[in-house]
Amino acid sequence: MIRVKILWLSHRDIRHPRAGGAELTIYEVGKRLVADGHKVNWITPRPIASPKKELIDGIIISRIGGNLIVHVASIIYILTMRQDYDIIIDDMGHAMPWFSRLITRKPVIVYFRHRHSRTLKGQVNRILASFLTLMERGYRIFYRGCAFVTESESSLQDLISMGIPETKIFLNPVLAP
């Protein structure tokens, strides 16, 4: 079996104070990948008082900066490639893209949770909501040619409506533990 080195970019990790279902999914998938002999490095923002690096069930968690800084830091991390990863997963738990496909020739998989533009109103100010909606509309450009993985039929339909080719979308129902 080919062992794969995976760099997974996400907005929270399993020990983040606001971790939820998206982080549980990453953790469960990551644990299974590690159990199969793959290497998983999970890049995420660093909440106050959290360690910069931690090993949880074989998953390396690297915490870098805050919610916005992590996007810049992850680009620098990928460009300097402290490790030679085989695959990068851009987890879209939030609307802001990671832009990995634009800065590397490595295969990038987009893990799409749901369309954020429908729920931004009332969660963030109007200017930020408009900006994030624009970023979300750009997924088809930022991630041209990438595979998208999603967990529900409604999210699959969202991706199609956003201009993502159906042949690039893979439905992966929520994993049972």
Q: Strands, helices and their partners?
A:
Blueprint: E1 5-9, H1 21-35, E2 39-44, E3 53-56, E4 59-63, H2 69-80, E5 87-92, H3 100-103, E6 108-112, H4 126-137, H5 139-142, E7 147-150, H6 153-161, E8 169-171
Parallel strand pairs: 1-2, 1-5, 2-4, 5-6, 6-7, 7-8
Antiparallel strand pairs: 3-4
Question: How would you portray this structure in words?
Answer:
There is one protein chain. The chain starts with a strand and ends in a 6-residue tail after the last strand. It has an 8-stranded mixed beta sheet with strand order 3-4-2-1-5-6-7-8. Helices cover 32% and strands 21% of the residues. The chain has helices at residues 21-35, 69-80, 100-103, 126-137, 139-142, 153-161, and strands spanning 5-9, 39-44, 53-56, 59-63, 87-92, 108-112, 147-150, 169-171. Strand 1 (5-9), helix 1 (21-35) and strand 2 form a beta-alpha-beta unit. It is of the alpha/beta class and 177 residues long. It has one domain (5-171): Glycogen Phosphorylase B (Rossmann fold), CATH 3.40.50.2000. The model has no long low-confidence stretch (mean pLDDT 88).
